[in-house]
Specification:
There is one protein chain. By secondary structure, the chain is α+β, with helices and mostly antiparallel strands. The chain is about 30% helix and about 30% strand. The chain has 13 helices and 23 strands. The strands form 7 sheets. It has a 7-stranded mixed β-sheet. Strand 12 and strand 13 form a beta hairpin. The mean pLDDT is about 95. It binds glycyl-adenosine-5'-phosphate (GAP). Glycyl-adenosine-5'-phosphate (GAP) binds next to strand 10, strand 13, strand 16 and helix 9.
């Protein structure tokens, strides 16, 4: 990765557009700032990221269950959670060019764009407001949720009782959140509409520090296990002054993006703040009855809160590699096979002698087994391999003249370019075995 940081981001943004990972939203109308659309490869990549998270958080564990709560919630939720009062960023305006900045993103009192004088900072609430129903007055105001976590807290007892969960246990959710960020930017890193992957882990009071230590390591390991280079990951503890109003401790999993070390995920000890607040504001106690002590207790909460878009961007940036130089250069996205949008490309070496038909049969077998695959007959085999390398496809199955003799095909591995032969009828099996190994 010899490219300079800014160039590298530009290259990645343009590769994302060219190959159909990510497009600017509403591009034909000039685009909508900070909004992005995932294309055919991007939607697969992001789905795979979310599925890997769900597997590690829900399917692979006996102590966590999932929910899918609505984006619009009762407005009192945001009073209880503290978002109405406290979910603000300090905003300054340039008196000359009228550009707005987050006060903590500029130094001094002059505008970084034109040198004009900046106003005094004032608090700007980041929640998007809208109206429920046909009347647009104060009584109809609802908010687009700024975090998925509150949907979990308000459903705490519903889930605990329905799924008969006992402490310690967790509730996981993936879904959209909205924040009217003053300065979005860095591609999909900070946007106003994004997807979160959050899990609230409820523990007996007193066990919170043990579980906080556990989830820090567990979450860091998740990114590394899916192929992010260890030297590009770190944990950064929050200073006391940085802590959110509800948190006793918080640590960020950070990734070394081309624009610097930045947060991928926060792991917070939220104490019993949220359950107590919702009990108070709703008048319905969210305490649990402890059979041993015969007392009602408010569990403490450890919250690993990740962003699906940020994680996807980190997996993209980390996978990006250019091997060789000049006309021999090859661009490869070295995705972990579990994340790769396409797992296998079925390719005939040439467009004749029945090779396309055999390759198409392999393609149909792969699709029949729900293995995301691609079939490509156009241009030279070298060009087609290069296209798959750039899409991050870990395996190509190539039909050649030997196939016509002995019914074997070549499996080419993306990272090593190593090739070996397997029976044309066993491509699904061979690839499934490889993917299983990679997913362990
Ligand atoms: N419930 C706690 C919470 O929401 P957060 O640190 O504000 O904590 C969690 O958000 C994660 O959500 C972040 O680490 C990040 O990955 C993602 N996220 C937050 N704001 C974002 C934004 N404007 N654009 C993209 N992702 C964002």
């Amino acid at each position: 990765m010899a490219e300079k940081a800014a160039d590298l981001m530009t290259t990645i943004v343009s590769l994302c557009k060219r190959r159909g990972f990510i497009f600017q939203s509403s591009e034909i109308y000039g685009g909508l700032n900070s909004c992005w659309d995932y294309g055919p490869l991007g939607v697969e990549l992001k789905r795979n990221v979310k599925e890997a998270w769900w597997k590690s958080m829900v399917w692979g564990r006996r102590d966590i269950v999932g929910i899918d709560a609505s984006i619009l919630m009762h407005p009192t939720v945001w009073e209880a959670s503290g978002h109405l009062k406290g979910f603000t960023d300090p905003l300054v305006d340039c008196k000359k060019c009228k550009t707005r900045f987050r006060a903590d993103h500029v130094t001094g009192s002059t505008c970084p764009e034109c040198g004009g004088e900046l106003t005094q900072p004032r608090n700007f609430n980041l929640m998007f407001k809208t109206f429920m129903g046909p009347v647009e007055d104060d009584s109809a105001v609802v908010y687009m949720r700024p975090e998925t976590a509150q949907g979990i807290f308000v459903n705490f007892l519903n889930v605990q009782q329905a799924a008969r969960m006992k402490l310690p246990f967790g509730i996981a959710q993936i879904g959209k959140s909205f924040r009217n960020e003053i300065t979005p930017g860095n591609f999909t890193y900070r946007t106003r509409e994004f997807e979160q992957m959050e899990m609230e882990f409820f523990v007996p009071p007193g066990d919170d520090e043990k579980w906080y230590a556990y989830w820090r390591e567990e979450r860091l390991g998740w990114y590394a296990g899916l192929g992010i280079r260890k030297e590009n990951l770190r944990l950064r503890d929050h200073e006391k002054s940085e802590l959110a109003h509800y948190a006793k401790a918080c640590v960020d999993v950070e990734y070394n993006f081309p624009f610097g070390w930045s947060e991928l995920e926060g792991i917070a000890n939220r104490t019993d703040f949220d359950l107590k607040q919702h009990s108070q504001h709703s008048g319905k106690s969210l305490a649990l009855f402890d059979e041993d002590t015969k007392e009602h207790v408010f569990p403490f909460v450890i919250e690993p809160a990740a962003g699906a878009d940020r994680a996807t961007l980190a997996f993209l940036v980390d996978a990006y590699d250019v091997e060789g130089e000049g006309k021999d250069a090859r661009t490869v996205l070295r995705f972990h096979p579990a994340l790769a949008p396409i797992k296998v490309a079925a390719l005939p070496l040439v467009k004749r002698e029945g090779m396309p038909e055999i390759a198409e049969k392999i393609y149909n077998d792969l699709l029949g087994n729900s293995i995301s695959s691609f079939f490509d007959v156009n241009s030279s085999i070298g060009r087609r391999y290069a296209r798959q390398d750039e899409a991050g496809t870990p395996f190509c199955a190539t039909v050649d003249s030997q196939t016509l003799q002995d019914n074997t095909v070549t499996i080419r591995e993306r990272d090593t370019r190593q090739q070996y032969r397997v029976s044309a009828d066993k491509v699904v099996e061979a690839v499934t075995e490889k993917l299983k190994g990679a997913n362990r």
